[in-house]
Amino acid sequence: MNAIWVRRFVDVLVAMFALVILGSLIQLVGSIMGDTFGTVTWEASGHPGPEIAIGDAAAFSAKTGDLSVEGLYIVNAIYWLARLVVLGLMLAVFVKLRGILGRIASSDMFNDANVDALRRIGWFLLIASLVSIGATIIVQAGMLNALPPIEGIKVHPSISWDAKGVNNIWLEYEPPILPLLMAFIAFLSSSAFRLGMNFREDSESVV
After folding, report:
1. What is the pTM of this model?
2. Which of 34, 78, 105, 137 gives 3 a disulfide partner, CB atoms 3.0 to 4.6 angstroms apart?
3. Sign of torsion, CA 135 141 145 149?
4. Which of the residue ranges 10-24, 57-71, 136-150 would you say has the lowest mean pLDDT?
């Protein structure tokens, strides 16, 4: 697959992320207009069984389902802000990648523009990963603090230990390991492109 076809594939990804951002904004406006903005919902897992009431404003059912907590307007605002920031950064990554592929397709590979674009991609991915992790910690902490103590039930954040003698419910989260690895690869590629550019300039000066 040459650079032109890869660039067209990236164009599709750019369009998809733009649609996802648009859909997220529509969903956000809908939650505000529908008076459900204060409800924070997070995927959780626990032991299979009937619906478990956690106070007056929260409930959980099934082995894998959603834990919803009401009245968390600030926490939900943080969640949506982080979500839109991450989506925006990912869109910026693909836009930068599109530019790199366009220059490579024009036989212009080792230049300042590509070095700068790769470095920016690395920073975008790194920041998006840190925002995701930070927002997850804040949102999960806000949800857990809002839950009343219920005898026989323990709700855990994603990183914690199992409690014995109670029904354990876990808030799920997949760490952004792949974006972090891609960020480091982008930084390494930027350095490699810089070395290639310096080598080309040294070769041209000798000629």
Report:
1. 0.81
2. 105
3. positive
4. 57-71
Tell me, rounded to whole angstroms, the distance of Cα 195 from its chain centroid.
31
Phi, psi torsion values for 55, nearest 5 degrees? 75, -160
In 58-149, the DSSP E strands lie at: 58-60, 64-69
Contact 140, 75 (CB under 8 A): no
* Res. 98: pLDDT tops 80: yes
Integer CA distances (angstroms), 203 to 83, 147, 197, 199, 200, in order: 46, 66, 10, 6, 5
Q: Are 193 and 115 in contact (CB under 8 A)?
A: yes
Contacts of 137 (CB under 8 A, 6+ apart): 157
Is residue 67 classed exposed, middle or buried when 0-12, 13-18 and 19+ CB atoms within 10 A define those classes?
buried
| Residues composing the chain | 207
Dist. CA 11–CA 17, nearest whole Å: 10
Residue 75 has pLDDT above 90, yes or no: yes
Q: Structure tokens of 27?
A: 């969903």
